[in-house]
Design a protein that fits this description.
The protein contains eight helices and 23 strands. By secondary structure, the chain is of the alpha/beta class. Helix 1 packs parallel to helix 8, helix 3 runs parallel beside helix 4 and helix 7 crosses helix 8. It is globular and about 70 Å long. The N terminus is likely disordered.
Amino acid sequence: MTAEAAGPTGAVEELELPDPVELELPDPVELELTVGPVGHGGFCVARHEGRVVFVRHALPGERVRAVVTEDRGGSYCRADAVVVLEPAAGRVPPPCPASGPGGCGGCDFQHVDPRVQRELKAQVVAEQLRRIAGLDVEVTVQELPGGPLGWRTRTRLAVDRTGQPGFRVHRSHTVLPVAACPLAVSGSLDTVFSRRWRPGAELEVVTDDPSRAHVAQLPPGRPPKQLSGTGRVVRHAAGRRWELSARVFWQVHPAAADALAALVGDWAAAPHGGTVWDLYGGVGLFASVLAGQVGPTGSVTVVEASRWAVADGAAALADLEQVRFVHGRVERNLVRLPGPPDVVVLDPPRSGAGREAATAVADRGPARVVQVACDPAALARDVAAYLQCGYRLLAVRALDAFPMTHHVECVALLAR
């Protein structure tokens, strides 16, 4: 086999290339399964010949034909339901043509009625608390305003080798080009999908409250490059206007920040003149509410590792003299915080606060601990740590801040 290529002088040279090799790919393995309960991670659990099968695109109680997508041996494998032989009552047509087996990995539950989605998420939260923390808790998942579509204000996309933007296939680096995303805020991705981009690029689109889209390229290991928009966004929550960098953390669902701030404030019930810690506090959303509770004679200390969030938060809350920001890791700053605290609020990353931080908080003896979590398993691990330190779980509330996905936002209230 030959091909032409330009040589050093610009002349065309003939190259000898090896003949293509026909690879024999194994035939896909199909299983007929009766689907069991929902699992943590956007799948349901089935069993086949003594092994556990994690099945995506299925519902509990369904009879499906599934194709194995990953099998490394051992006690389990992964599969996609490709044919539904006996559908469950909660199954609906997916609103996005890119969802489903082999499609976009961003949505787990597009085939599920939104009410049933919330029921499944409640089951997952309850099961994690039961399995990890040993607690029997009844959980409901609250619907947020706006419906199940058009809520995503922050969207990350990848660009394929032809320059087309899209999303990655589930558990894969493969980029699936798409023409639209029904979860994103209406119109926010129009400028992204209307053009070609540098192959291999990562893009992030952030939409602010005036519905302006800010597009940034995320080069590996380097600061983001702003491609459109100012990179400064405006948010409104907890009765305040926030002007922030598009890079700092903010709840993705437009209604989530207000809902969480109200719930955290209600459960914290910080005393007037009291001392409050707001750990992993971001730009101080919860601190703005807690400051009103403790009043000018109290104190709210925000600990946050992102220097951009600290700078933006300090500017946004400059009128609240009782709020102080500390830049740094929570674990390294706990011993230096004013105390003892009356209330501690935590909103850690997906992995949770961890046993060390939870134990350190409990050792300072706050009357109440309010913890926000976007991962039910991490929340259950932290709750178990608090229980071992003499705290009890008073309540758990869950918000459907990520419709069409398996993710759910939880808030737990613990008392000494």
